[in-house]
């Protein structure tokens, strides 16, 4: 069963789909725990690879930007605090984001571990994350560093298409949808993010390199360097090798 199929609703799923999903969930109960950080610049391929990693390793995928928006929309205590900060023009504090991560990782979907995407971005954030996990007797197992030359990233990002509801990513040239402009699974429209342009990307890349280099050094003993400037199947093989080393005994 493909990773994308887990987003099917009951109405769309066949009996065969349901049986495969039940079998998968039973297998998940015996999967080793893994807590993974994905680091990489915009357009590096994290969005393409994360649904497969999430499904095959029974992990939850935590993107801090999405978590903040969801918490604000749901009007949770942390969401209300974040909304107040954003409306006042202040930055959302590291402690608030750590609180969101801690809250999310207590849910059943994260029972076997998580993929953390977009956080930490600074060494202070990494330290606070480690402190939170340490209180629970846990630790980060591996850091996947998606490495792609900047000039390649510009071409990737400018052609990127996204399905907003699921986060599935496509590309006009490298990974086009089966039907132009439509998600392969739902048939819903794909969008281009407004900041997916060369000028915005170059500014984001400069900030990314300045912020992320110290984080990679901080986690040096746990970093797996991925040559992400390769076809998707080759990147997937590199990830599979890294994930095999990340099992918690």
* Average pLDDT taken over every residue: 87
Radius of gyration: 18 Å
What form results from the Cα inertia axes?
globular
Task: Output the helix-strand order.
Answer: HEHEHHHEHEHEEHEH
List strands and helices in order, with pairings.
Elements: H1 15-28, E1 34-39, H2 46-56, E2 60-63, H3 64-74, H4 77-87, H5 94-105, E3 113-117, H6 123-134, E4 142-147, H7 150-158, E5 160-162, E6 169-171, H8 198-218, E7 223-227, H9 232-244
Parallel strand pairs: 1-3, 1-4, 2-3, 4-7
Antiparallel strand pairs: 5-6
Helix pairs in contact: 3-4, 5-6, 7-8
Description:
- The chain is of the alpha/beta class and 249 residues long.
- It contains nine helices and seven strands, in the order H-E-H-E-H-H-H-E-H-E-H-E-E-H-E-H.
- It has helices spanning 15-28, 46-56, 64-74, 77-87, 94-105, 123-134, 150-158, 198-218, 232-244, and strands spanning 34-39, 60-63, 113-117, 142-147, 160-162, 169-171, 223-227.
- A five-stranded parallel beta sheet has the order 2-3-1-4-7, with helices on both faces. Strands 5-6 form a two-stranded antiparallel sheet.
- Strand 5 and strand 6 form a beta hairpin.
- Helix 3 (64-74) crosses helix 4 (77-87), helix 5 (94-105) runs parallel beside helix 6 (123-134) and helix 7 (150-158) packs across helix 8 (198-218).
- The radius of gyration is 18 Å and the shape is globular.
- The protein starts with 14 loop residues before the first helix and ends in a 5-residue tail after the last helix.
- The model is unreliable at 1-8 (pLDDT under 50).
